[in-house]
Amino acid sequence: MKLLTLEEWCDLKYKAHKPTLQTLQRWARAGKIYPAAEKHGRQYRVRPDAIYLNPTDIHVGKKIKESQSAEPAKNAFMQKVINDTASRQV
User: Where does the Excisionase-like domain start and stop, copy by copy (predicted)?
Assistant: First the structure.
């Protein structure tokens, strides 16, 4: 998966009233972006599906759960079914 710079991620997530680069860097350092931003040299990089989390928001857990895709789990299960390696409980 290609990681985006904070500016590229900001362009994807915010159409108007975009946060400044300094604000984005502050969010990355404080861990307010999920999944966490990675620092590569002098730049932070994030996944395209990353979201901003306000730690004072009471719905933080719900936002994290909604941001996680169930596709990897579904694909792993389908591989087990196709390969007939799923455990059989009767």
Answer: 4-57
Beta bridge partners of 33: 52
Token pair recorded at residue 57? 């928001």
Instruction: Assess whether pLDDT exceeds 80 at residue 78.
Output: no
φ, ψ dihedrals at 44, nearest 5°: -85, 145
Give kind and range of the element (H or E) at residue 56.
none
Domains and CATH numbers, the chain: 4-82 (1.10.1660.20)
3-class DSSP assignment, residue 87: coil
Greater confidence (65 vs 50) lies with 50
Please state, in angstroms and rounded to a whole number, the distance separating the CA atoms of residues 75 and 65. Answer: 18
Q: Full-prediction pTM beyond 0.70?
A: no
pLDDT, greater one: 29 or 79:
29
Using alpha carbons, select from 40, 44, 15, 43 the residue that is nearest to residue 32: 44
